[in-house]
Amino acid sequence: MVSAGSTEFISLLAVLLGGGMFGAWLMHKIKFPTMIGFILIGIVAGPFGLGVVTDTELINILAEFGIIILLFVVGLEFSIDKLRRIGSKGILVGTVQLSIVFFLGYITATSFGWTHIEGLYLGAILSITSTVISLRLLRDLNLVNTKEMNTVVMILIIEDLAAVLLLAVLGNMSEGQGIEFFDIGIMILESLVFFVLALVMGVKVVPRIIEKVNVMRMEEAPFITALALGFGLAVLANFLGLSTAIGAFLMGVIIASSKHSESIIQKILPIRDFFGVIFFVSIGMLFNVALFPEAIWIALPIIAIAVIGKFIGNFFAASIAGNSLTSAATIATVMVPIAEFSYILAKQGVDNGSLRESIYPVILLVSLGTMFLLPLLLRITPTVADPRSLIPDRFLNSVYITGQFFRKMFPNQNETEHIKFVSIFKKYGMTFFVNLVIIVAILSAMDYFSSEIVLLLEDPEVPFFMEPEVFVTIITILLVVYPIFSLVRRLEKVVEVVSNTITINIGFMAVGKPVQRITRNVLFVGLILLMVAIFISFTADIKTVTSMPIIISTIGMIIAIPLILDTIIVIQKITQSNMATLLADESKESNTRSD
After folding, report:
1. Which of 202, 225, 337, 593 has its CA 20 to 30 A from that of 429?
2. 176 with 353: CB under 8 angstroms?
3. Max alpha carbon distance in the chain (Å)?
4. What are the strands, taking DSSP E only, across 26-175?
5. Residue 508 gets which letter from DSSP?
6. 3-class SS at 166?
7. Which run of H or of E encompasses 532?
């Protein structure tokens, strides 16, 4: 006899797989991503739809299995050698577009009145592109083994790595805890220690284990062993307070260094497809249809910001990578949809209380919106398949030329330049890092002991002349003043040396040193914003001075505004004096490629 629980589980699998494939077939017929079909079937059949499946706990368990398998396979396909081949320029390109979208997502969330943690989650969710959909689109456009595909893969590798880091950093944040500087520092440190120890020890031990198992002459032995190790490290990561997905991903990366990784990947792909369908259908089942009327009005502006922001960010990044305008637009278009990693982040945020449940439908609608808009984007943007464009040429050219300008700042380094940059890092890097660690250590220690110091000074028997919280803040500022100034001095020296090299590479306006001014201003403004955020968080407990955040923000703004204005002036001068040169160079390169 089959128990009632077993029957329900079998019926759930039948709905997940059979219904999911029916939905995927419908989407395939109308030229939409099949992933939409999986999600829509989940919405219809789930507990908030027709109620065909009502056991949300079982749905969550299956979704968790899907996440572990998906991340394990991502790790298998992501090797350290791939990251090395990308190089510093590839990392720069991937980071540029990711930072633009992350910033837009965070600003959008805070403008809606969401918490800072929810803002961080939205920024992370919007910035990670769907690998499955992007690569499928490239295949549909016949762009396999092209420069466009190489650029997309390069950006996706950086995004996948960033997504795993974001999962680790955001994983332990929960609603009500707030963002405590000390807690974040400890959390990042624990994550880094786990990453390093797992990778260093795993790369030395795991390939040997798989090699020993392979000697058994059992065809399935390496594959089963790899799965066991993946689930094992996932459990260990969960025990240490990290996401199970982190452990699965790391074990995938470790096994990728084994010479048997290719055979393991081939055997695990059917399991990935199986659990992939289950994961996406289960994501739809968690969608509360009753929240749709409220969620859609929040989702619509976020969809617009996500599509525009991801297109511009990826178009700019692809321009820096050296693609033509049409190629850059093609890359930007296929990089718009968000899906698998975004769902994983959203589910993690809801599970640990960082995201309200009412935000989950918004995220799902935003993801579906980025997918549904793909056919429209392919029609209105100039792509390799159809160069016609409904977007004004003036807008695309301005972004493209800016990207070309930055590309000229970072040409392919020869051996001499590489040695020069290594010597710069050796000379100033360690001192810079030490000062940064000192600042973090001081702020963390003062944050940790501030409550005890305040309690001591509030004792009536201890004579004191000012508010204890204010006193702790003043002492903290005095302690970090010297390492901050030392940090700034080292940063100025690095900027000067690097910008001089870049100015020579560009070949113009060497006397005015515009690149040094731009680089210095951007880095200093970023440092100011970081310090403002840290001090606002640190002084949040000062009740007597309610306007302290405004005071700190005003001071930071007063310092930053001259730097921002100077940057704008320099960029205008460079643009006016060198636009014709940049356009001429681009025209020559295009003619050379066509010949």
Report:
1. 202
2. yes
3. 87
4. none
5. S
6. helix
7. helix 514-538
* Residue 55, helix vs strand vs coil: coil
**Confidence check: pLDDT of 110 > 70:** yes
| pLDDT above 80 for 474 | no
Helix (H) or strand (E) holding 156: helix 147-170
Check residue 477 and give its pLDDT: 77
Residues 6+ apart with CB under 8 A from 340: 70, 130, 131, 132, 279, 280
Q: What is the DSSP string of 380-413?
A: HS--SS----SS-HHHHHHHHHHHHHHHHHS---
Contact 490, 435 (CB under 8 A): yes
Q: How many CA atoms lie within 13 A of 372 on its CB side?
A: 13
- Can you tell me the distance from the alpha carbon of 399 to that of 381, in angstroms, rounded to the nearest whole number? 14
Q: Assign residue 130 a region (left: φ > 0; alpha: ψ between -120 and 50; beta: otherwise).
A: beta
From CA 434, how far away is CA 443, in angstroms rounded?
14
Share of the chain above pLDDT 70, in %: 73
At residue 264, the 3 state secondary structure works out as helix
Evaluate whether 565 touches 525 at the Cβ level (below 8 Å): no
Q: Which residue has the higher pLDDT, 418 or 289?
A: 289
What is the pTM (predicted TM-score) of this model?
Answer: 0.71
- Rounded-to-integer distance, Cα 316 and Cα 314, Å: 5
* pLDDT of res. 365: 92
3-state secondary structure at position 112: coil
DSSP 576: H
Q: Is 529 exposed, middle or buried (0-12, 13-18, 19+ CB in 10 A)?
A: middle
At 340, list the tokens.
């698998």
Whether 56 contacts 357, CB under 8 Å: no
Confidence grade of residue 511 (pLDDT, cut at 50, 70, 90): very low
Q: Which amino acid would we find at residue 273?
A: D
Q: Determine the residue type at 491.
A: L
Cβ proximity of 302 and 119 under 8 Å: no
Task: Give the separation between CA 159 and CA 161, rounded to whole angstroms.
Answer: 5
